[in-house]
Amino acid sequence: MEMPIMMDTFFIPHAMSRTSPESTSTRPFFRKWKEEVVVGLPKPKAILLVSAHWVTSDPTVNVVHHNQTIHDYEGFPPFMAEIKYPAPGAPLLAMRVKELLMESGFETVHEDRTRGLDHGAWFPLMLMYPEADVPVCELSVQLSKDGAHHYNMGKALASLRAEGVLIIGSGGATNYPPPNYLPGGGPVLPSALEFDAWLKDALLSGRHEDVICYEKVAPHAKIAHPEAEHFYPLLVALGSAGEAAKAELIHHSWGAGCLSYASYRFSNNP
Known about the structure:
6-stranded mixed β-sheet; alpha/beta; globular; two-stranded parallel ribbon
């Protein structure tokens, strides 16, 4: 009997440009996703995307057959509101996620039967899977919980990797508020450089406990992440790859002089 192929898990930015999807520095990386990043892996049966832009008090999955495109942002040109990413929903996956979480001790897991995909999901996916032919389920993050909660959410979902599900965390290695943005990019803020370098070293060295407790041990943690919602998707992706997961930096660029677009693959294959 053949062993099932274990899918890698990923952490990516959404890096949404205020001018055009084509102008973001992550565009070439996302465009070559299927040809260069997931080459050798089977086409996913479904995608479980953990988005920084869906914050709830308890873990919640969207249980829909057809995903609507949510335009949940301000300050972008009007044409951005016309973008649609009509990926099918993944209601069976959503219920499987709920089942796995509850079996692992997460007592309350909600179903949202109306929510579609926010820009943390559809913006990268429209470049990675432009055909919109892979079913997508979203999972929320909880600002009221800590890093261990989100890492353990990932651990609970690890078996999905053997079921053909691609688990992606969409957030940001750094997430400075807009007043820190530098027009035209500019030199990267020293605090952003230090936090980003620390995160890379911790992940590539396998120091998962440090990453889970980043707020206590990382330099400039509260500056790089005033709130944790953009960091928590990384922990879900990391946890779902297993305790022996190896991290690989698969893309790196900067935006606005403070936003790290570092992207990571987490693999736990023999």
